[in-house]
Amino acid sequence: MDKTVQLQKFNVWANDKVFEHLKTLPLEIYRKETQSVFPSVSAVLIHMYQVDYVWLKAIKGEDFNDIVATLGQLTDDLQAASLDELEFKFKELSRKYDSFISGQTDITSQTTIRHPHFGTLESNYAELIQHVVNHGTYHRGHISAIINQLGHKGVSIDYIFYLYSLQHQ
């Protein structure tokens, strides 16, 4: 399997595991405020979604200023969303990533990202997808920390557990 496809599938799997686990916990865990890097699990998930949303649009060639202009309404929608609604939004966005990846004849094709603050980045689609996956992994760790801080166990979502899960399919 192509490495980029594999990483995207891992990202979806790990997000699914987080949502599945959150549904087994008391409902108030989703929005309960804590002293952590993020104030709540919902805040982490909203941030993750926002970044995934922005990067998909950027990878597709949309202008960052145009993307940022859509974030206010998106943020309002995400903050109002229930856990189930946010899970649905993640699944929809994942399908859009899958569609983008499968539509590329060469995922290692070069692209240029122009960011208003960071400047111009010459990269390729595979590296940018890897960044999105890495970003999700980093923040799923925050979710686990918050869950632990609130007295519950996290869920095993390391890449190795994804690989094991593939063997058991």
Protein traits:
169 residues; DinB/YfiT-like; mainly alpha; DinB; Damage-inducible protein DinB; metal ion binding; metal-binding; globular; Four Helix Bundle (Hemerythrin (Met), subunit A); two-stranded antiparallel ribbon; single chain
Considering DSSP H and I runs of 4 or more, what fraction of the residues is helical? Answer: 55-70%
Provide mean pLDDT, rounded: 96
Strand order of the largest sheet: 1-2
Poorly predicted tracts of residues: none
First-to-last CA distance: 15 Å
Backbone structural class: mainly alpha
CATH topology: Four Helix Bundle (Hemerythrin (Met), subunit A)
CATH homologous superfamily - what is it? dinb family like domain
CATH class identity: Mainly Alpha
Q: With helices defined by DSSP (H or I, 4 residues minimum), what is the helix count?
A: 7
Please describe the biggest sheet, giving its number of strands, its sense, and whether it closes into a barrel. 2 strands, antiparallel
Oligomer: single chain
Label the CATH architecture. Up-down Bundle
Strand content: 5-15%
